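Practice problem: predict the structure.
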Amino acid sequence: MPKLKTNRGAAKRFRSNGKGKFKRAQSHRRHILTKKTTKRKRHLRADAHIAEADVKSAKKLLPYA
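Answer:
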């Protein structure tokens, strides 16, 4: 049986944790930062989890995560 390929785009975006959930970075923190408040930018630093509805597809994209 051949090895399964990992989707490289998903591998760069998601990291799995011990409970089988996937962490992701928050969006809206790449550019046009001057008009965003310091508080808003600080809260965007924290990781978020992908939605429960997307976990099944993430597991297919990352078979070894």
